[in-house]
Amino acid sequence: MTRTPVAQHAPHRTPSAWGSVLRMLGIGAAVVAVSALGIGGFIAADLAVRVGQDAVDLEDAPEVAPPSLGAYPGEFAVLLVGTDECGEVSTQKLGERCVDEEGIRNDVNLLVHVSAEPRKVSVVSLPRDLILEVPECTREDGSVASGSSAAVINTVFERAGLSCVVKSVAEASGIDIGFAAKLSFDGVMEITDAIGGVEICIGGTGIRDRHTGIDWDPGLRTVSGYEALQFIRVRKGIGDGSDLARISNQQQYMSRLAKTILSSETLTDVPKVLRLANVIADNVDPSRDLANPVRLAQLALALKDVPFEEFKFLQLPTVEAPSDPNRVVTDESAAGPMWEAIRTGESMQITGEASNHGGVVAEDASASPSAPAAPESTAPDAPTPSATEGVVLSEQISGIDLNQQTCSGGKRR
Questions:
Q1: Is 199 helix (H, G, I), strand (E, B) or coil?
Q2: How confident is the model at residue 44 (pLDDT cuts 50, 70, 90)?
Q3: CB 3.0–4.6 Å: which of 130, 179, 243, 398 could bond 352 by disulfide?
Q4: Where does 183-316 have alpha helices with state H?
Q5: Average pLDDT score, the chain
Q6: Exposed, middle or buried: residue 60 (CB in 10 Å: 0-12, 13-18, 19+)?
Q7: What angle do CA 180, 184, 188 make, to 5 degrees?
Q8: Structure confidence by residue, pLDDT tens digits, 71-85
């Protein structure tokens, strides 16, 4: 298969894009936590007040039914936005990278879509350097931001806020987005600490990256706190060193964290669930319709019985932007069938690699003297893709399902 050379993407002025995965799962953790705790009593009331303090109205969002008991009816979509804001803890750890920041950018954009019955969950990562059309948007203060035929996606939040990011992604994907949440840096360390860390897998020759301060040998490693932050920021020490390689490595973390949060060990540990709920309440700024524990419980109930093979973590297929080698545009021929399958609730077969840019390798591909032994997997062998088993995605779309395990494509640069 011929590979299109990928732009390396110029570094930004802040520690951008590192918080993607934990932030995405932050709202998932809140959903699971509130569902596990129940939706009555002072705990739910306290969470409702704290989560809703900075709630945002979404312009032109579809109407959603009032929250009620039971699983959310029908399909829904949530846009999870990770901004490059530094808080007290991240400023201490990252120093000048935070002090010198100018404005707030949405460096991580994850579209989570859950289909109607039978449920399927699709998580699509949109690269921070993606150029797309941005519509005219109304800011929270009532002023109007003009549209653009070609803007970089990670400038949209600074331009017009969370609602405009949602509006832009909805138009690009053709998917109605009823819910959204924005998260900044500091929750990352607190979330991993709350669940006791996440075991990740480092392949290749290990990871050495002076930009994040990582110098780790191959093997399994449990990361939490600042190490988790370092791991999901790493870029130069994996694959081809691009931001697209980093997204795949973050998906490794995402899938392993998801399994940890969804495990019975977590959901039956009431103190741990309480810690998760409190961390999320203090670190998530949701859209108005998401700022309700009953709503979060509805979403949790919709997810609870989805088979792991129907959780897909995908990367938007892109090609180098004609106008700028450090930017990308959507590969429409590959993305079109993917978006259509998500909109119609079809199963999807991933035919691309776990990472088309070397950010991760499948565990069976990492069995070499320089790579760690893969943890034993109970997942069945992947079936040969066929039209009868769902939409066969383009090889240009990299990704994994929740049954698959990957290891970082580490390099000691």
A1: strand
A2: low
A3: 398
A4: 187-194, 225-233, 243-262, 264-267, 270-283, 293-303
A5: 79
A6: middle
A7: 105
A8: 899 999 999 888 877
